[in-house]
């Protein structure tokens, strides 16, 4: 028997546009996929507006509760980009123009022959003591302070920053999963499936209805941290479906 | 001068599959669009797992803070559908097989010649005192208790339930918005745009970078509850972009 290491995480997506419907978030699903792959359990997501109070409250609630907290959005150069201020306040430290980030951005704009405006300088702001999360797409770095990782909202940049960040994080035992497709709706399989779940307490069995406009079918997803445990539950789910088929 | 009515809301999306990445949520964006249209301000979204404690905590945190709380997911017939139990516990009331819902479902399965299994009976469960949110897609109702509206996770069903529910809710003064497209990145417009925001404090001006793989442009979204206020800010944003264009 092996001991699984459980590492937990939360995500905080920041932006009025996500709450007005103007922008449909793409970062939550991507983060979920990536964390599942490396063995970090995403336990909670919150979306809040560009509102300092709301961001501070959420950061403080989540950073105490989970091993890792990932944020997206609000680190650009405009007045509504207030994530660096809010995260600084959450940690009770000053928000400064980070010298290394200033040098990085200054050199980039000089190379491109563009003015290093006050607005662009805003992108170098981060809490005292933060370290960079590199941004190969558009240079302006994200940052990490303690267990909080602050990244951009633009999906291409969020994804690039996450790729830079992930290899440096503590990860756990990845969750293995398999999907058994059931031609029967949840109402037909619900009773026997609950029995299978009871028999395999070390797995988590989820049941996801699919609706094609006329009838329901079900995807049964089994998750476990050990291959043998997963295989035993899978066999019982398949046997359960065969039993239902024979009874029709 | 008119007085705007502000009505606030939160959403709680429930389901392991949203946090593992298996399912990419489609209900948050749809709810955001619909609420914006009718004049309800969506202020916060949370996603939690199929975990009773997590659901209870989130429901209680949100229902005290916002006028309306919309939930999605966890009301099907299987063992991992525990939203009715959790919401009942959040309100400190018993979770029962609602007699009206039992009659509705019983009749439907009889009509279809299908067995009304124990699993299917689970879909009639709701807190004592809850009223139905009708489900024209697949019959099994959602429910409302106080300011909490419990709906299905399957997008077609969530949308149908929301359509049933919305006309009965208290709504506010809708937010009007317009978008001005800027060919310049946020770094070029950030300074002057902050000035425009300062000059128009009754508007909320958001700036959304777009990245085509090579260069950034910006969508500037202005939001206000009065048409004249919106138009005045829009004119200043357009003038600002013209000034930048002339300076090049």
TrEMBL record, chains A, B:
Q: Which CDD domains does the annotation name?
A: cinA
- The segment(s) forming the MoaB/Mog domain are 10-172
InterPro entries in the cross-refs: CinA, FLAD1_M, MoaB/Mog-like_dom_sf, MoaB/Mog_dom
What the entry lists under Pfam families is as follows: FLAD1_M, MoCF_biosynth
Indicate what this protein is called per its UniProt record. Answer: Competence/damage-inducible protein A
Q: Which organism is it from?
A: Sinorhizobium terangae
